[in-house]
C-alpha cells in the first residue's frame, strides 16, 4: 500500500514510537489520526504538523471511545487504510517481593491496556477497513501491532508485560489468516529497547550506558524513527503478512 494519500490510525501516537510513526507517515504524504489519552501532547503535534493530523482522545480499552475515534477519523478523512497499535504501558512488579504479593489489579491493568486494547482497536478498525474499495491487488488495509522483545525473553518483574506482548505475537497469525479474506494484512513488530519516554526519559547516564551495552550491534538504544521506518516498510511491502519481526540490534534480554 502506498503511504501517499493513505489514512492511518496510530494508537499511542502522542508519544514515543507512535509519535515517530505519525511523523514518518505524514512526511511520506499520508494522514494520521492519533488515538491517545494525552490531549496536551496530541494537540501539540496537531499544531506542529497541521491539517494532515487529527487528534482523538481515545482510551483503547473502551469500545465506545474507539468507536468515537473511528467516527471522528471517518468524518475528517473519509477512510482508514492503516492501523498502527502503539498504545501500551508497563509496571515492573515481582510475583512476590518485600512489598508483598503481585497485586492482581496491576496484572489485569497491563493485560487490559496492552492486549485487550490492541485487540479492541483491531476488531473495530477491521470492521471499518473491510468496507474500503480494494486496491488493484485486492488490498484494503494494513494493521501493524507492537509487541516487545519481552514477549520472548521477559525479565524478572515482567510477568504481566511479557504475557500481554506474547499474546500479541500469538494472535498475529490467526488474525492475519482471517483478515486475508478482506485483503487486510497484519504484521507485528517486537522492539528491543528504544529511546522513548516509556524507557529513556527517567534514567541516569549510568543506566543508559548499561542499556546501550546490552545491545550487540549497534551498541545503543533504538531510535523511534527506526521503528517508524519498519512500519513504513510493512505498509509498503505487500508480501509481509502474518509475521512478527524483532527490531532489536540482536539484543536478548538478561533475567534482570
Ligand atoms: N520503548 C521501548 O523500549 C519499547 C520496547 C518494546 C516495546 N515497546 C512498546 O511500544 C509501544 C509504545 O511505547 P513507547 O515506548 O513509545 O511509550 P510511550 O509511553 O512514549 O507511548 C505510549 C503511548 O500510549 C498511550 N496510551 C497508554 N495507554 C493508553 C490507552 N489506554 N489508550 C490510549 N493511549 C494509551 C500513552 O498515553 C502514550 O502516549 C508500547 O506498546 C510499548 O510496550 C516499547
Walk across the major sheet and give the strand order: 3-2-1-4-7-8-9
Level-2 CATH architecture:
3-Layer(aba) Sandwich
Q: What is the SS-derived class? A: alpha/beta
- Largest sheet at a glance? 7 strands, parallel
The named CATH superfamily: NAD(P)-binding Rossmann-like Domain
CATH class categorisation: Alpha Beta
As for the CATH topology, it is Rossmann fold
Helix content: 40-55%
- H/E element sequence: EHEHEHEEEHEHEHHE
Low-confidence region ranges: none
Radius of gyration: 18 Å
* Annotation field: number of helices: 7
How many domain modules?
Answer: 1
Report how far the terminal alpha carbons are from each other: 40 Å
So what's the overall shape?
globular
Topology:
Layout: E1 7-11, H1 16-27, E2 31-36, H2 39-49, E3 53-57, H3 63-77, E4 82-85, E5 96-97, E6 100-101, H4 104-129, E7 141-146, H5 159-179, E8 184-191, H6 205-213, H7 224-236, E9 244-247
Parallel strand pairs: 1-2, 1-4, 2-3, 4-7, 7-8, 8-9
Antiparallel strand pairs: 5-6
Helix pairs in contact: 1-7, 3-4, 4-5
The structure holds nicotinamide-adenine-dinucleotide.
Amino acid at each position: 500500500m502506498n503511504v501517499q494519500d493513505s489514512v492511518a490510525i496510530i494508537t499511542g501516537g502522542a508519544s514515543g514510537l507512535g509519535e515517530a510513526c505519525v511523523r514518518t507517515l505524514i512526511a511520506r504524504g499520508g494522514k494520521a489520526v492519533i488515538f491517545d489519552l494525552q490531549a496536551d501532547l496530541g494537540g501539540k503535534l496537531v499544531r506542529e504538523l497541521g491539517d494532515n493530523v487529527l487528534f482523538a482522545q481515545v482510551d483503547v480499552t473502551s469500545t465506545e471511545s474507539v468507536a468515537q475515534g473511528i467516527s471522528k477519523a471517518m468524518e475528517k478523512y473519509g477512510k482508514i487504510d492503516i492501523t498502527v497499535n502503539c498504545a501500551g504501558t508497563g509496571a515492573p512488579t515481582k510475583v512476590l517481593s518485600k512489598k508483598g504479593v503481585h497485586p492482581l489489579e496491576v496484572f489485569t491493568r497491563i493485560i487490559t491496556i496492552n492486549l485487550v486494547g490492541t485487540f479492541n482497536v483491531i476488531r473495530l478498525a477491521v470492521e471499518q477497513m473491510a468496507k474500503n474499495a480494494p486496491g488493484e491487488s485486492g488490498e484494503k488495509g494494513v494493521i501493524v501491532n507492537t509487541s516487545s522483545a519481552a514477549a520472548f525473553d521477559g525479565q524478572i518483574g515482567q510477568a504481566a508485560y511479557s504475557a500481554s506482548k506474547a499474546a500479541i505475537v500469538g494472535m498475529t497469525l490467526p488474525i492475519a489468516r482471517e483478515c486475508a479474506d478482506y485483503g487486510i494484512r497484519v504484521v507485528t513488530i517486537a522492539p528491543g529497547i528504544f529511546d522513548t519516554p516509556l524507557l529513556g526519559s527517567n534514567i541516569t547516564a549510568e543506566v543508559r550506558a548499561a542499556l546501550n551495552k546490552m545491545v550487540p550491534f549497534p551498541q545503543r538504544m533504538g531510535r523511534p524513527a527506526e521503528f517508524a521506518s519498519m512500519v513504513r516498510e510493512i505498509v509498503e511491502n505487500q508480501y509481509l503478512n502474518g509475521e512478527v519481526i524483532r527490531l532489536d540490534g540482536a539484543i536478548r534480554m538478561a533475567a534482570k
